[in-house]
Amino acid sequence: MVTTLLSICSSFSWRYHRQVAPSSVPESEIPRAKTIACQSGSGWGDKENEDSSGFFNRRSVLVSGLSLLPSAVLGFPGDGLAVVKQGLLAGRIPGLSEPDEQGWSTYRRPDDKSGGHGVGWSPIIPYLFSVPQDWEEVPVSIADLGGTEIDLRFASSKEGKLFVIVAPVLRFADNLGEDAKIEKIGPPEKVISAFGPEVIGDNVEGKVQSINVAEHDGRMYYQYELEPPHALITATAAGNRLYLFNVIGNGLQWKRHYTDLKRIAESFRVA
Fold first, then answer.
1. CA 164 to chain CA mean position, Å
2. Residue 92 near residue 139 (C-beta atoms within 8 A)
3. From the CB of residue 223, how many other CB atoms can be counted at a distance below 10 Å?
4. How far, in Å, are 20, 26, 27, 34, 112 from residue 31 at the CA level?
5. Rounded CA gap, 65 and 67, in Å?
6. Residue 12 vs residues 4, 137, 141: alpha-carbon distances, Å
7. Maximum distance among all alpha carbons in the chain?
8. What share of the chain is helix, strand, coil (3-state, %, to 5)?
């Protein structure tokens, strides 16, 4: 049995040295290959262990270094994925003010935040709105129903959530110019019928509870309340884009925090 083991190890060692050290390639350029050291109680094979020890030392350093990287960088699932999503996601620039004496903060889309719809589109005109202190920005995924047109998400575990859709007006009309107005796109009923499904994922017929038209600084805003699902939508247009500001909550959130949700929805402005 010992003779057989020695024979196998000798054969493997010969093949290994022959493969790793061809005479036509300088030793400094030879790629290292993983070896299996054959060893008996008498210490046979120590020379081969010494020859390959440099490889194993370098391999240990490499493995140690890789273990320090976030798992998401290496393509493995885990907590590292959340770190990458939070830290490297395009557009993660703070825009929330300090809370006022009532505990409300104002979010203004940063001028240098990334976003847009490709070559030829002007920068997104900043928008702003107010939220209670416990609302926080959450990452936007391209897998969302609104795809790349969802520009921002906020959420509160207690009160509900909101998101902003910024869509090119050319999707709906080609004669609105570079300074579109919501009233040029159509009356409130036409706008909610066309864009409501993007918010709730379903036809809005029979679900619109109220419609209001407001004007702020010369810009018109269409305001809608839908049920079910519970949603408050504010629509306007600026530049070459349509803005849909959407505040939603479940039944319990709607019942307990309707006043706050309504205030959030009505605070939306395009600068």
1. 14
2. yes
3. 20
4. 7, 11, 9, 10, 47
5. 5
6. 12, 60, 52
7. 96
8. 35, 25, 40
At 130, which helix (H) or strand (E)? Answer: strand 127-132
Cα–Cα distance measured from residue 174 to residue 176, given in angstroms and rounded to the nearest whole number:
6
Residues 6+ positions from 138 with CB-CB distance below 8 Å: 153, 154, 155, 161
Residue 217: burial class (beta carbons within 10 Å; 0-12, 13-18, 19+): exposed
Q: How far is 246 from 261, CA to CA, in rounded Å?
A: 10
Burial of 44 (0-12, 13-18, 19+ CB in 10 A): middle
> In whole angstroms, what is the distance from residue 57 CA to residue 51 CA?
11
The residue among 135, 132, 113 whose CA lies nearest residue 124 is 113
Q: What is the distance between the alpha carbons of residues 190 and 218, in angstroms, rounded to a whole number?
A: 21
In the block, tokens 């935040």 appear at 113
Structure tokens at 119: 């070559």
Burial class (CB in 10 A: 0-12, 13-18, 19+), 162: buried
Q: Under a CB-based contact definition with an 8 Å cutoff, are residues 180 and 169 in contact?
A: yes
* Tens of pLDDT, residue by residue, the chain (271 residues): 444 443 444 444 444 444 444 444 444 444 444 444 434 444 444 444 444 444 445 444 433 443 444 433 333 333 333 333 333 344 444 799 999 999 999 999 998 887 654 444 568 899 999 999 999 999 887 666 555 689 999 999 999 999 999 988 887 777 787 889 999 999 999 999 998 998 898 999 999 999 999 999 999 999 999 998 999 999 999 998 999 999 999 999 999 999 999 999 999 999 8
